[in-house]
Specification:
It contains 1 helix and 3 strands. The protein is an alpha+beta fold and 61 residues long. The longest helix is centred in the last third of the chain and has 10 residues.
């Protein structure tokens, strides 16, 4: 597996930035500056479901 974001068996987190944008993030990677953890270690699918449930359409804001 070359891309850790595509690992179906991996452990992920959901990150959020000050603009309320969310991102799927592999749990073993450091959190980049400007982002914080919103959902801790979960499956890839749980994180994707969380992001979809909390999605904010920024173009309409």
């Amino acid at each position: 597996m070359d891309n850790p974001f595509d690992d179906e068996q991996g452990t992920f987190r959901v990150l959020i930035n000050e603009s309320r944008q969310r991102s799927l993030w592999p749990a073993h990677l450091a959190v980049p500056a400007g982002w914080e953890v919103e959902l801790t270690s979960s499956s890839r699918q749980q994180c994707l479901d969380y992001i979809e449930a909390h999605w904010i359409e920024l173009r309409s804001c």
